[in-house]
Amino acid sequence: MRDIKTSIQDFGWPRIIIFIFLIVLFILAPIVGVRLDASISDVLNRFGQYAILVLALVPMIQSGCGLNFGLALGIVAGLLGSTLSLQFEWRGFMGFFGAIALSLPFSIIFGYIYGKLLNKVKGEEMTIGMYVGLSFVMIMCIMWLVLPYSNPQMVWGFAGKGLRTTISTEGYWFKILNNFLAVKIGQFFVFPTGLLLFVAICCYLVWLFMRSRTGTAMTAVGSNPDFARASGVNADKMRTISVIMSTFLGAVGIIVYEQSFGFIQLYTAPNPMVFPAIAAILIGGASVNKASMVNVVIGTFLFQGLLTMTPSVINSILQTDMSEVIRMIVSNGIILYALTRKAKVTK
Amino acid sequence: MGQTGPLLSLKNISKDFYGNVVLQNVGFDLHEGEILGLVGENGAGKTTLMSILFGMPVIAETGGFTGTIELNGQEMHFASPFDALDAGLGMVHQEFSLIPGFTTTENIVLNRESMKPSILNDAFGDRMSTLDRPEMKTRAVGAIKKLGVKLDPDMLVSEMPVGHKQFTEIAREISRKNTKILILDEPTAVLTESEALILLDSLKKLAREGVGIIFISHRLREVAQIADQIVVLRDGVAVKNVPAAGVTIKDIASWMVGRSISGEAGPREESRALEEEIFSVEHLWVDMPGESVRDVGFSVNKGEIFGIGGLAGQGKLGIPNGIMGLYPAGGTVHLEGKEISLNNPAAALKAGMSFVSEDRRGVGLLLDESLEWNIAFTAIQIHGQYLKPVLGGLFTQRDSKAMEGLCKEYIQLLDIKCTGTKQKAKELSGGNQQKICLAKAFAMKPNVLFVSEPTRGIDVGAKKLVIDTLKKYNREYGTTIIMISSELEELRSICDRIAIIDEGKIAGILPPSADVAEFGILMAGATDSPSKTKRQSAAEEAPRA
Ligand SMILES: Nc1ncnc2c1ncn2[C@@H]1O[C@H](COP(=O)(O)OP(=O)(O)OP(=O)(O)O)[C@@H](O)[C@H]1O
Ligand SMILES: [Mg+2]
């Protein structure tokens, strides 16, 4: 009896309520004429698309830097990697992994500078991070225009230079993970084996890292920096490492997203990717200074599940097409809710 | 007390933390002007009982409690500490609750600042009043005077020595006009004996003015000295509730543990011949706020227990903190002939030194992590222990099994009261947290161990255990121990030599067999009489050469 009670408490009421709501939507779907198999396929797909961006938040939360509102930096690193990969006309797995490899040096440079900066503004990481992200995206808006890319698929046709706002990955590495070992059942259901496998491997690697000596030190820095320092740990270095990791995972996350979505979106597109990731991990039960793989998986699933199911079910009920509007309302509603319930820190 | 009823009465208070029962049908009365001494072993439930009484949020968060609290015969339900404050209760917590960036004055009158109405009041209400700083200061100074101590009303809390912090906190509670009941949870733990005496005097004065006081302490002598009534908690049950008259310290101690014990520390050691020097310090200075060290030099022999004493604020705490790299320091330190680089905690730990900090919640513990983590962490980081190779030695992972084993070993060795190795450090009682800090240092298997205030907040039984454990490590493993303590008696019971620090320098080194008066003279400055405190003497007389 007590065990049930405590496990419910551990799981948390908000998550249970959202979970029940999601199940209700799944039950309602066939009744109002939405195909269940297509919906489930859709949810799995979106889960895989976003999961690594959510995972990218874990290292910085653990090291006490809080929620990475500057995740856009990682996304930009990923954009640089993927555009370069296209520029070199790398295709298939070579193109996909090449994009990740090319984004690594950018992630390290951006993450290192961003981390140094955050070490100077302890306690204000989240606000500063958001401004750093926003202003960096603005600078990149200029860079995308002036960088000497030349692949005709990518640059504006009439001018012959300057990158387009959206670039298709079709013909390079479109759905390279999604289609890998994918299982197709019937006309509407596809199980994106490769995508989910890749997400699982990333989660496993981060989990392994968190259990290593450095990962343990990182967690301790987040828990009590003075304790960590007294134990011979260089707290600032650990924080910088966590920022670099978060930035690189953000880069990987956006590349995974692009291969599934089909487009590389440049200019201001990184900005609206950040808040949903943060909302997802909070919904998943993470706090500002503690997050686990379970939080990532549950949070992404609940958030993307709601985002997929609510518009299609409501659309069918009302017989209109307002899916974008409803999606915006649901998404921002959850973000707002998640941000109000962040944080419970022991001092 | 006679005709009027009790001021406060607790009835049938019970409380469990997720099934772990920590209080069982506890009840007692407190009358006007009475001082009630509440004693019990570490983890007996004293702090929990006071948290219930004061409406602390942890209680509601962990499932509430059963039983009733009556104030002047009326049943009370405190939803938060603010309700308790309004009802006339004041509490000094076991752990500090001051705001570091504020001054003494600001902390004392916090939330009850004197306001000067300004023009903006009419438009915007009370919020726009400006602070009446001179008036605030007068009130703070009044409260400080009532306590009978010397505190600088303009000093920042973050720069104060611990003793001053404690007095600031007490001044805050007594400066409230309507305080009828004052709860003090181990207020003297961080004070030196002379400071504690000042506090006890002012408590007696308050009681004479009609305030009811609940006084928790592990220093049984103090309890016997000032309490009118003594309540003993043992494993969450009130086993005794007796008038203090005629009760001896020994009685209290045996009620606490449920068997008769010797109480005081064992016989003094006879002097040992220890020759080989292992550790030396020359011209050490440390910039630690409130405890700065100016110029200290001493050397310690292999296998020795070296004591460092002195009044609060004179710099005794700065010595280990500086050597271990926690505060900026300079000078030369040698361990086994090798020079240790300062300002580098990792180097100090790697060289084979280890430190139990006096600030257990600040630097001693990872409150939000498990006991396993707390004990094994330093050994993982410095020695690479409790890790296991994975993927054919490609890299290493935490070895949970080994960490659990280590933790279990120390739980048993130090008799730590907890529900398991996975329990979070913040859920332990204060004394048991202290034992975790010791376990962390022992797990490093150091050659030289610094322990700072190792028995602060520990009950009599556990105190003996800690002292015996230190002794055991010293005798069996040859660990050299440097022990810093405010309790002279404790130092004298275990140390081979004792250095007294005064104004950031060593005033003298004495054998433990030296007369108490000799120590007193060193502590108070050589030309001063031992009964005076340092601060008074510094103000009255020119510093000695
Ligand atoms: N938040 C909590 N969650 C779970 N258990 C708790 C919590 N707080 C206290 N306990 C447990 O309650 C028991 C009583 O603790 P309490 O702090 O009241 O002891 P205490 O008498 O004040 O001891 P000490 O003298 O060491 O301060 C302990 O066994 C402790 O582990
Ligand atoms: Mg306590």
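qc> DSSP finds 20 helices and 24 strands in chain B.
qc> done
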